[in-house]
From TrEMBL:
One of its GO terms (cellular component) is cytoplasm. This is Indigoidine synthase A like protein-domain-containing protein. The keyword Transferase applies. It comes from the Eukaryota. The chain holds residues 1 to 322 of 761 of the full protein. The keyword Transferase applies. One of its GO terms (molecular function) is pseudouridylate synthase activity.
């Protein structure tokens, strides 16, 4: 595993760890990475801020140190201050636009000293360098509908294939082509496992996408053994742990599905589907508008649920790693 001294050297003075993250990593205490694109581009203000704070406090209350990752003024931050969280979440007009930072955007965002929210791919890239093995988020990027023409396949899927880590999410949004997303994950050598009683691969707002995950784990201890096995292979591999949204939300989830279908239709009609990195944020915003705010409420519920599960798994995993 990467030592902090090595990581500092590799980043050449660009790495800033929060005190609590540094302490936890040095002592082998459980640490979970959190992304920041969801703050800068994925949710509207002020829910983006309250959710980011809530995720951190859920993790802490279960004995896990949160490492929210973001770029700021030429530095890579692993663990951000309250003030930085507020700045990331501030979407008022007139501010310099924040960058959505996938793998390819890390260097230019640093070189230009901009503020960047890291995507799943960007967050994994950074987390690995400091030896963090677990990451909690809402949904990953995937294969977009129509990708057989547009070739819009999220860098998140490729990152999962090259950066060994356990990523906990609620599946992939049905703004995406879920069967093809699962195909690419297989091609990339990523172990996809559903958490809980049923093997269904979840579709973010709803517990089932109609697809089945190749693997399943029943509880935190089974999840931790799987992740431990993946991370201790001769050439470590990633696990995508898919946690279904709790079933009490199913009626609202089905309403949001209708908004998703309409948003995807509109994106094609208006040519938004050809705008690269803007596609996902546009769809998220439009689903929010069309669902009258229900999508956002569900998004918060499911990501908080992921944080609870992720914390329990991280505690078990740290035990196995001692
Ligand atoms: N899905 C969500 N909310 C989000 C994202 C995805 O429900 O905020 C963000 C994540 O940061 C993810 C990124 O890594 O969008 C994927 O973007 P793209 O499809 O452009 O790779
Ligand atoms: Mn894309």
């Amino acid at each position: 595993m990467a030592s902090l001294a090595t990581a500092r050297q590799q980043w050449g003075g660009r790495l800033v760890l929060s005190e609590e993250v540094e302490h936890a990593l040095q002592h082998g205490n459980p640490v979970v990475a959190l992304e920041s694109t969801i703050i800068t581009h994925g949710m509207p203000h002020p829910t983006n801020l309250s959710t980011a704070q809530s995720l951190e406090s859920i993790l802490r209350s279960r004995g896990v140190t949160p490492a929210t990752i973001a770029l700021h003024s030429g530095k890579v931050h692993v663990g951000v201050s309250q003030a930085q969280l507020e700045e990331l979440a501030d979407t008022s007009a007139g501010l310099v636009k924040k960058v959505k930072v996938s793998r390819r955007d890390i260097a230019p965002t640093l070189a230009k000293g901009l503020i960047g929210g890291t995507t799943v791919a960007g967050t994994m890239y950074v987390a690995r360098t400091v030896g963090i093995g677990m990451f909690v988020t809402g949904g990953i990027g995937g294969v977009h509908r129509g990708a057989e023409k547009s070739m819009d396949v999220s860098a998140d899927l490729i990152e999962l294939g090259r950066t060994p880590m356990a990523v906990i999410c609620a599946g992939a949004k049905s703004i995406l082509d879920i069967p093809r997303t699962l195909e690419v994950l297989e091609t990339q050598g990523v172990c996809v496992a559903t958490y809980g009683d049923k093997p269904d691969f979840p579709a973010f707002y709803t517990p089932s996408s109609g697809q089945t995950s190749p693997w399943a784990v029943k509880n935190a201890s089974e999840a931790a053994s799987l992740i431990h096995a993946s991370l201790t292979l001769p050439d470590p591999l990633s696990t995508l742990l898919a946690v279904p949204i709790p079933s009490i939300h199913t009626p609202e989830g089905e309403k949001v599905q209708q908004a998703v279908e309409q948003a995807v239709r509109e994106s094609i009609e208006q040519g938004i589907d050809k705008r690269g990195k803007e596609v996902t944020p546009w769809l998220l915003k439009r689903v929010g508008e069309l669902s009258g705010g229900i999508a956002l409420q569900l998004n918060v519920k499911l990501i908080e649920n992921n944080a609870r599960v992720g914390a329990d798994v991280a505690v078990e995993l740290a035990r196995l790693q001692r």
